[in-house]
Amino acid sequence: MAPSAAERRRGVAAVAAYMITAWAVLGGVLLLAVVAMNVLSVIGGVIWKPFPGDFEMTQVGVGIAAFAFLPYCQLTGKNVTADIFTMGAAPRWIARFRLAASAVALLFALLLLWRMWLGMGDQREYGYTTTILQFPIWTAFVPILVSLGLLALAAAMTLIEAAEGRIDGDRND
After folding, report:
1. By CB atoms within 10 Å of each CB, which of 82, 120, 132, 154 scores lowest?
2. Which positions, given as ranges, span the membrane (predicted)?
3. pLDDT tens across 85-118, in order?
4. Which residue, among 66, 29, 78, 61, has the nearest Cα to 148 in the 3D structure?
5. 56 with 40: CB under 8 angstroms?
């Protein structure tokens, strides 16, 4: 069996893939913490007084976690796809579609990175805070910006791999 694209990554690409994977794992840990907090809050509402701000922390935590998964999905080719349109396509066309998808993902990641950076600046400048806990909203943008930077890196990696023909031919696993 031929090695996958992930197994063929060496040097800087392997380090980047490790960072992207670690970031996704941290996103998963954050999501588990949000779930645990919600369970404690629900139980607390029945047994004792629930703690304030759980809704705000859930919003921020889930948003950050969702962005943390994007680079990993791009790097591993596990984004949602419409395979029904390409089931009968020749491998050459599939490779072209993957190349185009990686290019679009890179452009989209850079656009989001730019706009979220400006959005963070606005949130910070105007001093917006959450209603109950009063923590600055701009702080939630920092890990999201890291995620978008890693998404741009993952998209660039998959673009290079697609251009070199190193992306796995069969992704129907």
Report:
1. 82
2. 12-37, 57-76, 97-117, 137-160
3. 788 888 888 889 899 999 999 999 999 999 999 9
4. 66
5. no
Tokens 């949130």 correspond to 123
Q: Which two tokens stand for residue 85?
A: 């349109």
> Are the beta carbons of 23 and 71 closer than 8 angstroms?
yes
Alpha carbons 85 and 109: distance in angstroms, whole number: 25
Position of tokens 């998964």? 69
Q: What is the pLDDT of residue 8?
A: 72
Most confident of 52-56, 59-63, 89-93: 59-63
Is the Cα dihedral 17, 19, 23, 25 positive or negative?
Answer: positive
B/e letters for 51-78, b = 16+ CB within 10 Å, e = fewer, are eebbebbeebbeebbebbbbbbbbbbbe
Q: Whole-angstrom Cα distance, residue 173 to residue 147?
A: 26
Whether residue 173 is predicted with pLDDT greater than 60 in this model: the reply is no
> What residues contact 77, with CB distance under 8 A and at least 6 apart?
98, 158, 167, 168, 171
Angle between helix axes 138-163 and 54-76 (nearest 10 degrees) is 10
